[in-house]
Amino acid sequence: MTQNLLKRLKGWPWLALTPVLLFILIACFGPSLVPYDPSAQDYSATLQSPTWSHWLGTDYLGRDVLSRIVGGARVSLVAMAIVLVAALAIGVVIGSLAGYIGGRIELVLISLIDVALALPSLVIALALIGILGTGYWSMITALTLAWWANYARMSRAVVKAELQQPYIEATRVMGASHLWIFGRHILPNVLALVVVYASADAGALVLAIATLSFLGLGVAPPTPEWGQMLVDGMSYIEEYPAIVIYPGLALTLVVVSFNLLGEAFALQKVPRPVRGRLLRRRRAVRATEERQRDAAEMGAKSI
């Protein structure tokens, strides 16, 4: 069991997974380790360069930049997690119903999905925020309602493909209920695909959260958030560009890391050509099997 676990862990894309895990750890435990409150103001230490007391300097209100970047990581992670879980739940339910039930219900749900996919997600989020108003939870609700359609489309496609498999018909013949068939056989395959796509979509969500906060439609000050930090630093970019560079680098690294992670998970589903030591090993095994088969045939003929 331990060997199988080690083999599975060895096959994971650790090069892409490590920055994502580092971001999650910083978001979870970083705020308890930084020496300053991200919202604490010190007007006697405004726009300072990096020092031993402030490793990344301070902003125009004397707030510690490192503490605000770490606090912004937590805000982005929590918002991203809420939106992903809610959008996955809505998308999987609607897409699975459309694929499993079929008929007129499928036609209505597919039309709804097509309408949601007709416009970019950020445009839909902006329109919904215009209706719901600005604020943190309005941003969460708007992004959730703008992000579910892709998961619904993929869920429907997987359900349709699984329903054509012979084992589904066999379970029906054996008297299994619709709930058992869906929960035991279809839902795991749906989640396996949708979660892989969500790992790449997480980076786009972090960027969308920062964009809405940058426009003043998401996280409101003084809560630390990377997009809000970019807005605060724009007025001082010429005399102190680091105040914009640091949150911009943090945002870029997180988005790129999630994109690489999603791409790595997707590539694991693609069959790779066998090369090197594994190819030689398989050839040796095949040659041994052929020799054993030939020896068995010779023994049978001699008898």
From TrEMBL:
Keywords: Cell membrane, Membrane, Peptide transport, Plasmid, Protein transport, Transmembrane, Transmembrane helix, Transport
Main location per the UniProt record: membrane
Transmembrane segments: 12-34, 77-100, 107-129, 135-152, 190-220, 240-262
Claim: Cell membrane is one of the keywords in the record: yes
Pfam families in UniProt: BPD_transp_1, OppC_N
InterPro entries per record: BP-dependent_transpt_permease, MetI-like, MetI-like_sf, OppC_N
Keyword Membrane appears in the UniProt entry: yes
Compartment list: Cell membrane
Annotated ABC transmembrane type-1 domain residues: 73-262
Ranges in a coiled coil: none
GO CC terms: plasma membrane
Membrane topology label: Multi-pass membrane protein
A GO BP annotation: transmembrane transport
Similarity remark: Belongs to the binding-protein-dependent transport system permease family.
PANTHER family reported in the protein's UniProt record: D,D-DIPEPTIDE TRANSPORT SYSTEM PERMEASE PROTEIN DDPC-RELATED, OLIGOPEPTIDE TRANSPORT SYSTEM PERMEASE PROTEIN APPC
The protein, known as: ABC transporter permease subunit
